[in-house]
TrEMBL record:
InterPro entries from the UniProt entry: Kinase-like_dom_sf, Prot_kinase_dom, Protein_kinase_ATP_BS, Ser/Thr_kinase_AS, U-box_ubiquitin_ligases, Ubox_domain, Znf_RING/FYVE/PHD
Name of the protein this chain belongs to: RING-type E3 ubiquitin transferase
Keyword DNA-binding assigned: no
Domain Protein kinase intervals: 114-389
SUPFAM superfamilies according to UniProt: Protein kinase-like (PK-like) (SSF56112), RING/U-box (SSF57850)
Catalysed reaction equations from the record: S-ubiquitinyl-[E2 ubiquitin-conjugating enzyme]-L-cysteine + [acceptor protein]-L-lysine = [E2 ubiquitin-conjugating enzyme]-L-cysteine + N(6)-ubiquitinyl-[acceptor protein]-L-lysine
Xref: PANTHER family: OS02G0152300 PROTEIN, U-BOX DOMAIN-CONTAINING PROTEIN 35
UniProt keyword list: ATP-binding, Coiled coil, Kinase, Nucleotide-binding, Serine/threonine-protein kinase, Transferase, Ubl conjugation pathway
Pathway the protein contributes to: Protein modification; protein ubiquitination
Known EC number: 2.3.2.27
UniProt key word Repeat: no
Coiled-coil residue spans: 20-89
Length: 481
């Protein structure tokens, strides 16, 4: 063979070997890519399994949290119901404790030396302060005109007590503290030496303030006014039929009717009441007329003789004010004239909503009948007035229940700063602010700073706010009623 052929053969062999290696490398590369694809597919499937497991775990956690929250809400509601039931049982049938005697130092400390910031009312007989005594929110009435550590009101009660009933002031207070009724303001105690009376605190102030919408308070709906009229009448019946002494209020007026957070009414200022023997319907009071002009029984002013019908007269005026939200002076004439002219709807309080004409006219006529000048012409409170009011209240309740519910705006501290909605599970974060648990947990997963202050959070611990949760649950319960 020639040298050229040998050279060609050598090159040919090298080319074949190179081609074979390239094919082998291509096969290896294809095999590697196939294995990579298999690995990616396996990773994708594993990721899907992980995501599915994560979702399942998250769902299980949410179910567990929801179940725990529902159980916690049920426990709180059950505890609240038990406390309310115990409170009602103690008020109606349980043993009644005597009033508590507070020291002057306790009264001064509780009112921050009678700070104007705590003053919630001022009248002819005294000034009322909101305070906290023995971990209980209360209202302290400090009577005016101290004279030898006794006020004129206390001295008057002492004179009445000594001349008519032959018992001292301490005995009178002891009796008053034991009078319990759901719609009678509870006397918690007193500081007798300095003329201070301690009552339970009523969040919504007086009926007078709400009717006149002082401090921009919301108006009272007409059906709630029907109910309040029935509550006041039932309380007067209770006082008039108390044993062993019948009690006459003698100063019933909207300013002495207090309202709690649910607009449930309670009559206050029973300290001026007169106790009568059960076998006597009239008593001669020698201290002069007690009460407020326009609410005082004309026969009481003329003769000085007080009877349960004196309270009936004042109640009639309260009824007309519930309907009109107008001052008491000349109100009876205004309502009587409006009814005669068939113009009653024009003088009713428009802020109360759509008054039902038939029932409202019946209530107005009932109020006017209580305002008859002669006692014998006024209806009997227990046998005539109360049954009529109960029937009207039931009709009002049916109208209220059938009316569309209006969702009240929640208090600001019930709203989560992140969700801008009412919290379901309020928790306190390390920045001191309260958030909904799910919202703040999601926030701290992605952020290390406070959503309120933008400062770094010292830690990511969350503390349940059970007190706020209880308040939110009570608000929701009231909103759904």
């Amino acid at each position: 063979m020639s040298e050229g052929y040998m050279q060609w053969l050598k090159v040919r062999t090298l080319m074949l070997l190179g081609s074979k290696r390239r094919l082998e490398e291509a096969d290896k590369l294809k095999e590697i890519k196939l294995k990579e694809e298999e690995a990616r597919e396996l990773a994708r499937k594993e990721k899907e399994k992980y995501e599915a497991a994560k979702r399942e775990a998250e769902y299980a956690r949410e179910c567990a949290e929801k179940e725990a929250l529902q159980r916690k809400e049920a426990e709180i509601k059950a505890l609240h119901d038990v406390k309310e039931k115990e409170k009602l049982e103690n008020a109606l049938v349980g043993p009644v404790q005597s009033y508590q005697e507070f020291t002057w130092e306790e009264i001064v400390s509780a009112t921050s030396s009678f700070s104007e910031n705590l003053q919630i009312g001022k009248g002819a007989h005294g000034t009322v302060y909101r305070c906290n005594l023995h971990h209980t929110t209360a209202a302290v009435k400090v009577l005016h005109s101290k004279e030898g550590h006794r006020t004129k009101e206390f001295q008057q009660e002492v004179r009445i007590t000594k001349t008519v009933f032959k018992i001292d002031l301490k005995g009178t207070l002891d009796v008053l503290s034991k009078i319990r009724h759901p719609h009678l303001l509870l006397l918690l105690g007193a500081c007798s030496d300095h003329g201070c009376l301690v009552y339970e605190y009523m969040e919504n102030g007086s009926l007078e303030e709400r009717l006149l919408q002082k401090y921009n308070t919301a108006p009272i709906p007409w059906f709630e006014r029907y109910r309040i009229a029935w509550e006041v009448a039932s309380t007067l019946v209770f006082l008039h039929n108390s044993k062993p002494k019948s009690i006459i209020h003698r100063d019933l007026k909207p300013a002495n009717i207090l309202l709690d957070h649910n607009l449930v009414s309670k009559i206050g200022d029973v300290g001026l009441s007169t106790m009568l023997n059960l076998d006597s319907s009239i008593c001669n009071i020698n201290t002069g007329p007690v009460g407020t002009l326009c609410y005082i029984d004309p026969e009481y002013q003329r003769t000085g003789l007080v009877s349960p019908k004196s309270d009936v007269y004042a109640f009639g005026m309260v009824v007309l004010q519930l309907l009109t939200a107008k001052p008491a002076i000349a109100l009876a004439h205004l309502v009587e004239t409006a009814i005669q002219d068939d113009q009653l709807m024009k003088i009713l309080d428009p802020m109360a909503g759509q008054w039902p004409m038939k029932e409202t006219k019946e209530l107005a006529l009932l109020g006017l009948s209580c305002l008859e000048l002669r006692r014998r012409d006024r209806p009997d409170l227990k046998d005539e007035v109360l049954p009529a009011l109960e029937r009207l209240k039931d009709a009002a309740d049916r109208s209220r229940d059938s009316a569309p519910k209006v969702q009240l705006a929640p208090p600001n501290h019930f709203v989560c700063p992140i969700l801008k909605d009412v919290m379901h599970d309020p928790c306190v974060a390390a920045d001191g602010y309260t958030y909904d648990r799910r919202a703040i947990e999601k926030w701290v997963e992605e952020n290390d700073n406070s959503p309120m202050t933008n400062l770094a959070l010292p830690n990511k611990n969350l503390i349940p706010n059970y007190t706020l949760l209880s308040a939110i649950m009570e608000w929701k319960s009231q909103s759904n009623q």
